[in-house]
């Protein structure tokens, strides 16, 4: 489903060159729940951004669902992100000016979906995360756990095959974190392939496979 | 999608009221200036009282005698005889009116001097124009034939000469330059910006001092040619051109000084532009200058707004990152920010429309231009909307382009 070969990421400034990722080789199969672990600054989020096509590698190849993406145009990459990928961020990244349901609808705005259909799909997604009673609320009126559930609803509303979660429980207490993990496990059971960045060993152990990074290098 | 964009734009406006106030103030002021200018241009060139039929009118206002090298030139209005011969005889028209350029006279009322603009016209002048007769009627062919000392005056002159309380003035006498004229009608005056119909007093062309019998091509008269319908204008122009082309050179060469005669029946706008431009090149230069001035009026505040917009949109880097992460192509984001900016511009445009209405009411009632009738009619309104759109695009495209190019990972860190 996701294949990374010899991926390298270098950040360059006029005076410094930083190797953020070095020779990463990952193969995530369809329906797998994989976690990426490592200490702060080891390149976890960079790796997830590269898997999610939010950032380009300096070297190496990426294949999503069997297709190499190096030569994809901006438009094509956007379409791939829209159709195949769903993102969950540590700091939720909800748009405060939009209501919960409008936030959830965002991925559908970039498809040929009617307003009515968008509303129905967004309601369905919110029901899945148990927030159908908060549709008209605004992000600022929600708790951290509720915000993350809205973010999950937004990630799954377009029914993507892959969900990428960057420390989804990082800003939540353990009870809320477990609840979020439970939702992710349920989505995985329903068929979604999930890649989750975490620094919580206990969370990582509940996933199918663990990839460890240290100083930008894959250690397991 | 559109409602989503507009919802966001509205929320962003409410987020920083003072910022919004400054932005809208700038937009409103700029658009007000442009809308007032548009209304004034419409006042100058549009079909308004008493020249309501401008859409199917052609103006013959000048006779130009020149040489082929364009080194010497003599120009001015036509003679009455010339217009009778070459304009009145046009076959493809509904009617042709001949009138003098305005001249000045004095009248005295209760020992006080009244400065007057006077105009000599034929009978058709009253059919080609749409003057509103407040009392009485225009002079007719009999008055012309008999060279009657009759006059049509404006309501303003009536009030000045006979006083505000005069019940009816038709049949009364007005003394202009020691000649007594019988008032035959009173019309609602026209603004001085309509030079071919503006006057305080209108006399039949056979009245004293009109000089209508002057010989030669040049004199003090102009003609308004009224076509049956606007689409007939090219036919009428072609017919008139063919008449002019047949004039023997001896009639205008002035002892071989001139070998080119230029007399055009132009629409009011073309005729106006021709006054300032002699060739197509001049005309392009004039349009370029006007275009540049308009662009400057819009461009300078737009540049300012670009800066405000960039900082306003930068606040939303995270939103840009999220939208891109969920599949928004750069083009969609470009459009989002352009639409938002156009939306804000239209809010400013709505305020500007209200302000323009107040400004033109003020101009109309201030007396700066007598009988000023500036309006916000459909053409002015549509042009205003177009101006809003251009301004919105001008100030929105650059920031939108910059923002849509933001790298996702960096935008999400913001």
TrEMBL record, chain A:
Question: Which positions fall inside the ABC transporter domain?
Answer: 2-219
> What start and end residues bound the annotated signal peptide?
none
Enumerate the transmembrane spans.
Answer: none
Keyword Transcription: yes or no? no
Which Gene3D superfamilies does UniProt cross-reference here?
P-loop containing nucleotide triphosphate hydrolases
**Record key words, sorted:** ATP-binding, Nucleotide-binding, Translocase, Transport
What GO MF annotations does this protein's record show? ATP binding
Q: Which SUPFAM superfamilies match?
A: P-loop containing nucleoside triphosphate hydrolases
Q: Where are the coiled-coil regions?
A: none
Q: Decide whether keyword Cell division is in the record.
A: no
- Note the InterPro entries from the entry: AAA+_ATPase (IPR003593), ABC_transporter-like_ATP-bd (IPR003439), ABC_transporter-like_CS (IPR017871), MacB-like_ATP-bd (IPR017911), P-loop_NTPase (IPR027417)
The entry's family comment says: Belongs to the ABC transporter superfamily.
Q: What is this protein called?
A: ABC transporter ATP-binding protein
Automatic annotation (TrEMBL), chain B:
Q: Can you give the residue ranges of the MacB-like periplasmic core domain?
A: 20-241
Extract the coiled-coil ranges from the record: none
Ranges of residues in domain ABC3 transporter permease C-terminal:
292-407
Instruction: State if Membrane is listed as a keyword.
Output: yes
Listed transmembrane segments? 21-41, 284-306, 333-360, 380-401
Q: Does the keyword Zinc apply?
A: no
Q: Which UniProt keywords apply?
A: Cell membrane, Membrane, Transmembrane, Transmembrane helix
Q: How does it sit in the membrane?
A: Multi-pass membrane protein
Give the matching PANTHER family.
ABC-TYPE MACROLIDE FAMILY EXPORT SYSTEM PERMEASE COMPONENT 2 (PTHR30572:SF18), MEMBRANE COMPONENT OF TRANSPORTER-RELATED (PTHR30572)
| Name this polypeptide is given | ABC transporter permease
Record localization: Cell membrane
């Amino acid at each position: 489903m996701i294949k990374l070969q010899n991926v390298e990421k270098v950040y360059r400034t006029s005076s410094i060159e930083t190797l953020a990722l070095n020779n990463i080789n990952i193969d995530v199969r369809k329906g797998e729940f994989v976690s990426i672990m490592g200490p702060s600054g080891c390149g976890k989020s960079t790796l997830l951004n590269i898997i999610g096509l939010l950032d380009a590698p300096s070297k190496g190849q990426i294949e999503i669902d069997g297709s190499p993406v190096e030569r994809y145009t901006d438009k094509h990459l956007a379409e791939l992100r829209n159709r195949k990928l769903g993102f969950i961020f540590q700091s939720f990244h909800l748009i405060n000016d939009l209501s919960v349901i409008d936030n959830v609808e965002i991925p559908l705005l970039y498809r040929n979906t009617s307003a009515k259909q968008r509303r129905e799909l967004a309601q369905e997604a919110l029901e899945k995360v148990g927030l159908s009673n908060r549709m008209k609320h605004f992000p600022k009126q929600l708790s951290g756990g509720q915000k993350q559930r809205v973010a999950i609803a937004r990630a799954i509303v377009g029914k993507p095959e892959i969900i990428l979660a960057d420390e989804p429980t990082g800003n939540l207490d353990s009870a809320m974190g477990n609840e979020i993990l439970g939702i992710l496990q349920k989505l995985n059971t329903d068929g979604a392939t999930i890649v989750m960045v975490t620094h919580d060993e206990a969370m990582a152990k509940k996933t199918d496979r663990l990839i460890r990074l240290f100083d930008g290098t894959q250690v397991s | 999608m559109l409602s989503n964009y507009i919802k966001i734009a509205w929320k962003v406006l409410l987020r920083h009221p003072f910022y919004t106030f400054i932005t809208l103030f700038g937009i409103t002021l700029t658009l007000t200036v442009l809308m007032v200018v548009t209304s004034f241009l419409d006042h100058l060139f549009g079909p308004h009282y008493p020249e309501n039929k401008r859409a199917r009118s052609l103006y013959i206002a000048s006779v130009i005698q020149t040489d082929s090298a364009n080194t010497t030139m003599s120009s001015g209005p036509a003679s009455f005889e010339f217009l009778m011969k070459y304009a009145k005889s046009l076959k493809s028209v509904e009617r042709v009116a001949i009138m003098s350029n305005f001249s000045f006279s004095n009248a005295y009322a209760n020992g006080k001097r009244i400065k007057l603009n006077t105009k000599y016209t034929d009978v058709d002048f009253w059919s080609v124009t749409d003057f509103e007769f407040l009392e009485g009627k225009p002079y007719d062919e009999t008055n012309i034939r008999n060279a009657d000392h009759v006059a049509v005056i404006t309501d303003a002159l009536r009030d000045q000469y006979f006083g505000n309380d005069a019940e009816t003035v038709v049949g009364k006498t007005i003394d202009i330059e020691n000649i007594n004229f019988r008032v035959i009608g009173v019309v609602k005056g026209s603004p001085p910006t309509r030079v071919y119909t503006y006057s305080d007093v209108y006399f039949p062309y056979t009245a004293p001092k009109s000089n209508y019998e002057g010989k030669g091509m040049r004199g003090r008269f102009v003609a308004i040619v009224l076509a049956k319908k606007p689409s007939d204008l090219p036919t009428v122009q072609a017919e008139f051109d063919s008449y002019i082309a047949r004039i023997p050179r001896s009639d205008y060469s002035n002892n071989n000084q001139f070998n080119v005669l230029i007399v055009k029946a132009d629409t009011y706008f073309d005729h106006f532009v021709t006054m300032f431009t002699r060739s197509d090149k001049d005309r392009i230069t004039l349009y370029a200058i006007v275009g540049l001035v308009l662009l400057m009026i819009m461009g300078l505040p737009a540049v300012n707004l670009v800066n405000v917009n960039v900082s306003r949109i930068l606040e939303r880097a995270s939103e840009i990152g999220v939208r891109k992460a969920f599949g928004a192509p750069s083009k969609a984001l470009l459009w989002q920010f352009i639409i938002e900016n156009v939306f804000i511009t239209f809010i400013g445009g709505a305020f500007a429309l209200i302000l323009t209405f107040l400004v033109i009411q003020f101009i109309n009632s201030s007396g700066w231009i007598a009988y000023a009738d500036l309006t916000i009619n459909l053409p002015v309104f549509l042009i205003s909307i177009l101006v809003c759109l251009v301004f919105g695009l001008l100030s929105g495209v650059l920031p939108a382009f910059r923002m849509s190019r933001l790298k996702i990972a960096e935008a999400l860190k913001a």
